[in-house]
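Reviewer 2 asked us to include a model.

Predict the structure of this chain.
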Amino acid sequence: MPQDTQTETTQQNKVLSYIKNLGFSDAQIVDKGSNYVVDGDIVFSKTMEVPADNGKSITEQYYNGYIVTNSRNIRVKIDPSITSMTSEINGAINQWNTVPNSRLRFVITTGTVYDILIKVDNTIGSSTCGQAYLSTSNGLAGNTVWINQALIQNNSAAQRQRTIAHEFGHTISFKHTNQSTTTNVPGVGGTDAQSLMNGGQCGSGATVLSTKDKQATAALYPL
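Predicted model (structure tokens):
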């Protein structure tokens, strides 16, 4: 096997191991070329830097263990492809920004320097409303949110906003609340049918952050 191919295979195996150590099963992991897509909408680059702990120390619910360090000023760039959903984007951001006792703040930027790019991708799947990268081990927000505008354009405005808010949740470390192998944020235990971060609810899930969603956000991003 050529050296570069061997190195690439080794890197991909490291990423797979990391994903599985976060609690995801083989059945939840789909190979999408340069990325792995997990549990429908969580994206991991095959070239990502795998944290030294390889995910083994993660113990909190819907949380990958990596807090965004500039959480008071997470800059969101709206790609021209999705400007028609600016209202929904602003509504989604407002939900996260108004969580009581939390320092978390997303801000819209029109500049060339940003933390998250949100854009349209109508090719991500016939039943996938959106996808996003998780936050990273070096304290950065997941840098891209993809929205399947063709799929959600006929949903209610509240459901379109829900899709966007859900994907922003992944960029700041939240996994799916209803992932069976996930454990609890300290002090915010138990299942939550009303969680906006429940997976597999494209077009039908809760449209606002639940009480536990807010409690978990305040726990991870306290004032």
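Residues 3-220 form a domain with the Collagenase (Catalytic Domain) fold (CATH 3.40.390.10). The chain has five helices and eight strands. We have added this to the supplementary material.
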